[in-house]
Amino acid sequence: MSVASYSYQLQPDRVRVEFFRLLPISLFVVAFGAAFGLAATQKGLEPLQAMLMSATVFAGASQFAAVDMWGAEVSVLPMIAVVFAINSRHLLMGASLYPMLRDVSPGKRYGLVLLLTDANWAVSAQEYQNGRRNLEVILGGGLVLWLAWIVGTFLGVYFGGLLQNPKSLGLDMVLGCFLLSMALGGKKSPRVLVAWTVSAMASLAAWKWLPPNTHVVVGALAGGAIGLFWLEGRPSSDQEATANDH
């Protein structure tokens, strides 16, 4: 592929718009970042270590799992396996973004996916289904969520007693409700509805009968299998041109 084919250019104005668009969700990320900061210090991590972990790893559930396994002697291989299992959904999320990223230069492409989260992926995927390519939400939304996670970790490290259990306030449901709203607002073809149904049923079964965190992978693979074997017809050239213009 030649350099000239990397035609998509991120628009700074839209990046700023998407930054503020996901700002309300980031406030709840701050709360969970605070819970992580508190948990990390209670497990013996230094404040700087906890901050660096949040800044470089940026993966909430995986960081909680890693801290839970932390101790005087750390079992590295089991920790790697657990973190990979929890984050393996990013393999499918990244693959689903390929149609949007294929004409973005490799440097920008991998920089974008470093900021990929469930929230900005959901917005981008929903808008792509509706004919609009929005990579700015991955960058702008990812930046605000990353900053919120770091700020939350800082607050938890130094002021952790203020919010020890965000789940008691129902804050753990916020992101789930946001993702559900994205799904309900997206395309509603029979193929999509069947994929969501099969994914939900497989995930619930895995949550009940399989080891912890495997329900994330099982649900994603089940829904992805529907998409793989139930193919849609290619859009017409006019439809593709319209999506690219958007």
Question: How would you summarize what this structure contains?
Answer:
The protein has 246 residues and is mainly alpha-helical. 71% of the residues lie in helices and 0% in strands. It is globular, with a radius of gyration of 19 Å.
Structure overview:
Helix content is 71%, strand content 0%. It is globular. Residues 235-243 have low confidence and may be disordered. The two termini are 23 Å apart. It has helices at residues 12-21, 23-42, 47-56, 60-68, 76-87, 89-96, 98-101, 106-114, 118-129, 136-159, 174-185, 190-209, 214-229, 237-245. The protein is built from 14 helices and no strands. It is mainly α and 246 residues long.
How many angstroms separate the termini?
Answer: 23 Å
Report the biggest beta sheet as strand number plus sense, adding barrel if it closes.
none
Separate helix tally: 14
Task: Sum up the overall morphology in one term.
Answer: globular
Strand content: under 5%
Radius of gyration: 19 Å
Work out the number of β strands. Answer: 0
**Average pLDDT:** 81
| Helix content bin | over 70%
Point out poorly predicted stretches.
Answer: 235-243
Helix/strand structural class: mainly alpha
The helix-strand sequence is: HHHHHHHHHHHHHH
Which properties best describe this structure?
246 residues, mainly alpha, 14 helices, 0% strand
Chart the SSEs and their pairings.
Layout: H1 12-21, H2 23-42, H3 47-56, H4 60-68, H5 76-87, H6 89-96, H7 98-101, H8 106-114, H9 118-129, H10 136-159, H11 174-185, H12 190-209, H13 214-229, H14 237-245
Helix pairs in contact: 1-10, 2-3, 2-4, 2-10, 3-10, 4-5, 9-10, 9-11, 12-13
